[in-house]
Specification:
about 160 residues, alpha+beta, 2 domains, three-stranded antiparallel β-sheet
């Protein structure tokens, strides 16, 4: 069973390697802000791993407030109250409020690890491994990318 201190330490570790940023505006504005900020974040080794955009909404309170103000204005100034109320409702129906883009970043996500499959046990091991950690199979040394293979010298027969 995990103790509270263990859980808090584990949670802190996750928070150190992950973070979420928000960008408000229309989809185009939020995208531009995200792209500008992503360049700054990449310099600090934070790379985006997921993003989503949520449309903005007025919510029910805006419509209720419009209805109350319209009724009050109609009681005080009959023709003007109706005109103001109609325009307010049309505004709420036509104009959408700004949305929010949520982007999750991870630290060090830029370094993918190359893997290879062990021929004996079929488990994935890192590309640079010389020995399979699952079954102990020894791999032959493989030239790295860009490295020229060494030529074996043959001795002349006498």
């Amino acid at each position: 069973m995990l103790k509270k201190a263990d859980f808090m330490a584990r949670e802190k570790c996750v928070k150190l390697n992950q973070k979420t940023e928000t960008y408000r505006g229309s989809p185009k504005q939020a995208q531009r802000r995200f792209e500008r900020d992503a360049k700054r974040q990449a310099k600090k080794d934070w790379l985006p791993v997921s993003e989503r955009y949520e449309k903005g909404g007025w919510g029910g309170f805006a419509y209720i407030a419009a209805l109350v103000v319209t009724v009050v204005l109609c009681l005080l100034f009959l023709p003007a109250g109706i005109v103001v109320g109609v325009f307010w409702f049309l505004y709420l129906l036509i104009v959408e409020p700004k949305g929010t883009m949520f982007v999750s970043y991870e630290r060090g996500a830029s370094k993918p690890v190359k893997m290879k499959t062990c021929p004996d046990c079929a488990e994935d091991v890192q590309w640079a491994a010389r020995l399979c950690r699952f079954c102990g199979h020894e791999f032959e040394r493989v030239a790295e990318e860009g490295e020229l293979p060494k030529k074996k010298l043959r001795r002349a027969k006498r």
